[in-house]
Amino acid sequence: MWAAILCLTPWLPIHADSLAAESRRPPNMILILMDDMGWRDVGFMGNKFVETPHIDRLAKTGLMFTQAYASAPNCAPTRACLMSGQYTPRHGIYTVVDPRQPPGAPWHKWQAAESKSELDTHVVTIAEALRDGGYATAFFGMWNLGRGRTGPVTPGGQGFQKVVFPENLGFGKDEYFDDDKNYLSDRLTDEVLKFVDEHREQPFFVYLPDHAIHAPFNPKPDLLAKYKRKAAASNDRRDDPACAATIEAVDQNVGRIMDHLSKLGLSDNTFVIFTSDNGGTQQYTPPLRGGKGELYEGGLRVPLVVTGPGVKNPGSRCDVPVSSVDFYPTLHELAGINPPEGQLIDGVSLVPLLQGDVTLGRDQLFWHFPCYVGKATPSSAMREGNFKLIEFFEDGGRVELFNLKNDPNEEKNLAMVMPNKAAALAKTLRAWQEKTNASMPPGPNPHYDPQAERPRGSPGGGRPDQPKRGRP
C-alpha cells in the first residue's frame, strides 16, 4: 500500500545525480494550464481528428502520464490546488463562485456548500516560494482566484512579479479576438516569449493559464475552414471543427515556445508542464464516463506531459495516478528549495517518476466537490489502488464503487456486489473529510422546485453554442 497523502510531504534535497543538479543553475519552469481541455483532446492521448504535432513532440521528449487527474472537476478549485499544493478542503475553494449558480437555487435538490472565491493570502503559493528562491515569476492568462487586477489576492499579490491579463492586451471577457483581430493565445504567447528574452540569464517560472479551450469558440478562420473540410469527410459526430481549430491554435503556440527556448539555448535547462484544469465537456471524454463538473473519470482525467532536463526515459508512458496537487512539491524539488514550514501539503513530488521510478509511495487520491456544476450534483470521491468510490450527497450519501483496472469507463457499480469494500472506502473517505474539515452540503434545499430550469448560459455542463455530445 502506498502511504497516505494527508500529512506534510517531507522535502529531500536533490542529489548531484538528480534532475535539477544536472544543470549549472536551477532549471527554468513553464507550466501551461489549459481551460476545459479533456483527457483525449490532443494527439498523444489518441485523438485522431485534432492535429497537435507540437504538443505531441513534448510527449516524445518527456514523460506522458496516462492517469493524470485534475484536483477538481472545474477550474477555480484546481487552480487553487495547483498554487497551494493542497486539496480543496484545505483552501476552501470548491467551485467558481457565480451569481448565476447561487447556493439554494430552486433547480438544486440539495443545498450546496459555501465556497470561497479567493485564495487566502496566508497560503504560500508556488509563485511566492519560487520568487523567494531567486526565480523571476510571471503570470499570463486567467486567474480565477480573486477579483480585481491589483491587490493581495491577485497574481501580483500572490508571488508573480509580471502579470498579464487578457484585458491588459485589449481582450474583452471570454473573447478570443481583440479589435485588431489579434488572437488571444497568440498574444499571450508573445508576452511569454518577451518575458523569457528579458530573464534568460536567471531562472524563471512562467505560469500560462490560457483561456482556450473554453467555449464559446471563435477560432481562426483558416483553421476553422481546415477542420470543416476534415469533418465533412469524417463519420464521427464528435468531430467539431470549432473545437479542433481552437486546440490546434494552442498547439501552434506551444511550438512557438519550444522553438524559442531552443533558439536561446534554454531547452536543456527548462521544464515544461502541459495539462488542463478539469475534464472535458463531453466532447472527446468517451469512452470515459461523464465530463466537466462530475467526479467520474471524464470530469477529472486530463492530459499531462512533463519534459525537461534529466527525464530518464523520454517518450515513455507513466501509468501511476497523479494529481495537480503534485505540481507544488514537484516544482519545489526541481528548484532545490524547501516547501514553506507550517503549510500542509497534500501532493507528492513527481520527480521520482521523472527519474524512472514506477511508484510514488502512495495509494490514495481524494476529491471533494460539494457543489453543483451543470448536470453534476454535490459529491466526494477517493481512489485507492484500482478502486474508486464516489459519494453523492443529495442521495443521502449513496455511494458507487468501480474497479478502474477492469472497468475504466465506470460502467459497472460494484457497491452492492462488494459491500465490504464499499463500506471500507466510504469509512476512509469520511475520515479524510473530517480530518481536512471539509465543508459539507447543509441538507435538502427548502426552495427546491423540480420544475425549475437552470438558466441558459449558467456555468458548467456543456458548451452553450453546441449540443451535448458523447454518452449522457
From TrEMBL:
The keyword Transit peptide does not apply. Coiled coil: none annotated. It holds the Pfam family Sulfatase. SUPFAM superfamilies: Alkaline phosphatase-like. Keywords: Calcium, Hydrolase, Metal-binding, Signal. GO terms for molecular function: arylsulfatase activity; metal ion binding. Residues 431-472 are annotated as: Disordered. InterPro entries: Alkaline_phosphatase_core_sf, Sulfatase, Sulfatase_N. Residues 27-337 form the Sulfatase N-terminal domain. Its cofactor is Ca(2+). Belongs to the sulfatase family. This is Sulfatase N-terminal domain-containing protein. It comes from Planctopirus hydrillae.
